[in-house]
């Protein structure tokens, strides 16, 4: 199933490096936050490259850019692929960019080969995937898939008070297309860096993403009794030692059930060197590829927190904060990515993504699958983020082959 | 060894309640911070009460108030007792006050009985024991015992910029006596509330304090690797789970070696719900009645921190912050307090103090011992601090008997 498409890894790499000149960071990465001048400039470069290929551009009302290559059968739903060009304030050169420019490379290779697909193809650059300047993340895909209200998104403000809709017009990328039209895609593929260390550690060339993990976030408040540190240990009701045992237990449960459990924030009260903490607040982020397993994780975490609190004569209150459903990707498309990787002789891993991506929102309406590219040390959202040209090329080739297999060749 | 001294528990209690009317708190406690108008007013009331007994007052250059009752033999070194009248901003009515007014009650009972002691007696109100307004605590006793420079203390400023020496003059309590004269005391006794729950829990009437614990305070910085919470557990180097294990281990070691171990402050970085913490900083406060045992505690804590860090592939840096030597009280005086309690039929516990007191500084130069009075729930530095009149009377009687036994009756 490996195609003969002349995907050019060097051309892909040099395009990535070219784009990275726009909105450079201060340490070798990128600062091309959404709807800044740099974002506008990056969009113009993408537009120029796509126009050179004769692709028709459409921009919707939240700024999502769509470049269409006609297929032989205009009645077939388009096969789309892409990612995002916006970055974190101290972002890397590959997060998002790889998926857009790999999509561009697929378009270029098709042009070089003169291949015509049966279904039309679309390359998409989604607006504001990062959510760094305007929260929440994945706004463009969220609006397109009907998950966010368009008017609400256009009214969002950044920390300086600038309004999303006004900034979109200011940089010249407020279009007229209806974002919801993208719900009619026949398929969507996204290549993205892993943002984790698993692929590199396992020596895999590509990751085939099977779906997005279900998530449950909550907050725990442990209340014991404040006491002077000069008092003996026997009678203490130390909220921090209790919370520490809970944090260790959460890790153990996540390990055992094959999910992720993270305590990311902790606040200790009264936060004094010589006072036994009377109260500790901490956050819990639980994730699992399967919603039923997530529910079991959460149940076990609650039981353990209750047991530790009871044994230590402290109380523990648990308040839900946010949750996200399990989002499996399309089995046919996932299978097709695996076949493509196998046919190319790549070592690949099947894995869920615990991280949000445009593809996760698109998957709510459109058959979707994702490809992960390894990244050094799992580093991302960091200017030092790095991948190898060989990894980028491998991901791009799997993308190209799966796109061709899905769209069909005329 | 129980004396016939007519100590009057009701008079003691009503004096405590009378003094509490000066600088009342907002929730039934006291706000009589050092060198405020309220502190000055409290000092005046004590002076009036002492003058009614014919006691001669001397005030030294840092404001320590000393009331002397002559003994039959003026060549004998004085036997002193007292505590402090200043409070925390939201302090209780008993912390410090109990010791001063119990000393006053001893003086009153002696006057009632017409008893003349062989050695002179001195009642002392130390300046700024709390350290809440001007840091550090125990300034008056620290200067008197030569542990702090008098000029430095006089130049200390409060958070509003007011200067210690100027405030002392403003409230009219800057005296001319040499604070160092108090190094010539023959003995010093202090009755103080326990500020911990042990005595109440054990059903004891009084505590006999054997000395002050040695203390070692340090800071630990655990450095792992930041990672997105969407990444799997296997490859994490979570600084917080490592720190949590260390915190649990510190408690265990303190328990096992009969000391105190407290982690009071924790700071997590980057402190984001969905980021595995890359760095955690926390404080450690270790205390033990015996310096050798403290050293062993610290050794074991360091070994365990190193072992946990190694097993979790994180690093742990330990930086000393402060230390305080073991300060045993005078064995003869401690024994005398125990005999007094026994003779009165009180249930008593011998215990170290892990908390700083004027007596701990005085003990560096003068034979010293302390009596603890139980307090409800161990609550202190809190307006809800409370004791019973019976506990106050018991402590006062043990103080009276030990003072008489030490000074001798003419």
What layout of secondary structure does this protein have?
The structure is a homodimer of 410-residue chains.
Chain A: H1 9-19, H2 37-52, E1 56-59, E2 65-69, E3 79-83, H3 97-113, E4 121-125, H4 139-144, H5 150-154, H6 164-170, E5 187-193, H7 198-202, E6 206-212, E7 214-223, E8 227-228, H8 239-257, E9 260-262, E10 266-269, E11 275-276, E12 279-288, H9 291-311, E13 315-324, E14 327-328, H10 331-343, E15 348-353, H11 358-362, E16 368-373, H12 389-407
Key descriptive features of the protein:
21% strand; nine-stranded mixed beta sheet; Alpha-Beta Plaits; 2 domains; 16 strands; Aminopeptidase; five-stranded antiparallel beta sheet; elongated; homodimer; alpha+beta; 410 residues
This entry's quaternary arrangement is homodimer
Instruction: Give start-end ranges of low-pLDDT stretches of chain A.
Output: none
Total number of beta strands of chain A: 16
Largest interface: A-B, 55 and 55 residues
How many distinct domains of chain A?
Answer: 2
CATH class of the largest domain in chain A: Alpha Beta
CATH topology term of the largest domain in chain A: Aminopeptidase
Question: What is the CATH homology-level superfamily of the largest domain in chain A?
Answer: Zn peptidases
SSE order of chain A: HHEEEHEHHHEHEEEHEEEEHEEHEHEH
> What is the CATH architecture descriptor of the largest domain in chain A?
3-Layer(aba) Sandwich
* Share of residues in strands of chain A: 15-25%
What would the average pLDDT of chain A be, to the nearest integer?
Answer: 96
Helicity range of chain A:
25-40%
Cα end-to-end separation of chain A:
16 Å
Could you say which overall geometry of chain A the principal axes of the C-alpha atoms support?
elongated
């Amino acid at each position: 199933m490996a195609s003969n498409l002349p995907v050019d890894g060097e051309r892909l790499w040099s395009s990535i490096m070219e784009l990275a000149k726009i909105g450079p960071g201060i340490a070798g990465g990128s600062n091309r936050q959404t709807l800044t001048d740099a974002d506008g400039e990056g969009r113009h470069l993408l537009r120029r490259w796509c126009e050179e290929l004769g692709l028709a551009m459409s921009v919707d009302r939240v700024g999502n850019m769509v470049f269409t290559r006609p297929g032989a059968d205009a009645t077939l739903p388009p096969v789309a692929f892409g990612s995002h060009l916006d970055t974190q304030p101290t972002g890397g050169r590959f997060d998002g960019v790889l998926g857009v420019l790999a999509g561009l490379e697929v378009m270029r290779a098709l042009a070089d080969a003169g291949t015509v697909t049966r279904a039309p193809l679309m390359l998409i650059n989604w607006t504001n995937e990062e959510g760094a300047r305007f929260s929440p993340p994945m706004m463009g895909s969220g609006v397109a898939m009907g998950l966010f209200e368009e008017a609400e998104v256009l009214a969002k403000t950044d920390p300086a008070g600038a309004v999303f809709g006004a900034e979109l017009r200011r940089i010249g990328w407020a279009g007229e297309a209806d974002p919801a039209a993208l719900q009619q895609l026949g398929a969507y593929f996204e290549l993205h860096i892993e943002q984790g260390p698993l692929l590199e550690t396992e020596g895999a060339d590509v990751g085939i993403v099977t779906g997005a993990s279900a998530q449950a976030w909550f907050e725990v408040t442990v209340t014991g009794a404040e006491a002077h540190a000069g008092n003996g240990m026997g009678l203490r009701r130390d909220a921090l030692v209790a919370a520490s045992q809970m944090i260790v237990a959460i890790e153990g449960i996540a390990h055992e059930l094959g999910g992720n459990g993270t305590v990311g924030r902790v606040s200790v009260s009264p936060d004094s060197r010589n006072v036994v903490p009377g109260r500790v607040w901490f956050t819990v982020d639980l994730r699992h590829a399967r919603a039923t397993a997530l529910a079991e994780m959460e149940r076990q975490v609650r039981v353990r927190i209750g047991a530790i609190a009871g044994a230590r004569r402290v109380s523990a209150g648990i308040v839900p904060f946010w949750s996200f459903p399990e989002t499996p990707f399309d089995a046919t498309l996932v299978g097709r990515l695996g076949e493509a990787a196998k046919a190319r002789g790549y070592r690949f891993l099947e894995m869920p993504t615990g991280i949000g991506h445009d593809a996760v929102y698109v998957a709510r309406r459109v058959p979707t699958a994702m490809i992960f590219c390894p990244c050094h040390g799992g580093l991302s959202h960091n200017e030092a983020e790095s991948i190898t040209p060989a990894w980028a090329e491998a991901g791009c080739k799997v993308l190209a082959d799966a796109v061709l297999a899905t769209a069909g060749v005329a």
